Task: structure prediction
Amino acid sequence: MPTSPHPARAPRYDAPLARLRSRLRRLYYGDGKAAMRFQTAALTVDLAIIALFIAQPVLKGTQAFLAVDYSVAAVLFIDIAARMLAVPRPFRRLRQPLVLLDVLILVTLLLPYALINFGFLRILRLWSLSKSGRLWQPLKRRGLAEWELPARAVVNLVTFLFLATGFIYTFFFRQSSGLEGYLDALYFTVASVTTTGYGDITLEGPWGKLTAIVVMIIGISLFVQLAQAIFKPSKVHHPCPQCGLQRHDPDAVHCKACGQILNIPNDDG
Result:
């Protein structure tokens, strides 16, 4: 019986997965219209998740707590899995600190009662978005890259405020459940960071004093960083080809670090 000169090829079972990974890669990292709409929608979902993180101490005593918690966990799991599929080497990505942070946050969501003392770490999701650059893509697309530095400073300060608030609420104010205890923790954090020191709410014991000291020191540093980002002369992002310095004055002709001649583009051509 004659055989065909072109034997049938084995079916490619990985073809649908390859197409899915390619499509996810275009959506997450492309610059087309569909990709931009997808990235904007993903960022909106991320910000909504962060808002739920902040409100979660208030939701703990309600019947909707577990439903909200597991819904957020499902969305975060899908996002982590999709981003891993979108890169060529997903297991290498899994070793990155920001991805490990998202996995830790996911674990606290899946075990909300067992890991209740670590729930305040979820606000670090905002810092993770800032470090990954996903928060600043809309600014760069609209030609507002100069606002990225002060916006980063604001995000760092807000992240610290709610991270400290969550920690203080968990370890010092949880007995006052619900909104009252959380507001007391937020009030104490803001009063400490601004060094107002009204003294009407204090943390008891040596650990309370140490916590207040850390909050004041880090808070002052972040306020200084924010003030510098807002009031110092604006810089442009233009890496020096000689020494690699990233930011320069808009009208700079030479790199202030090594003297290399620069050719910084501007709106005048």
User: Anything to note?
Assistant: The first helix runs from residue 15 to 29. The first strand starts at residue 236 and ends at 237.
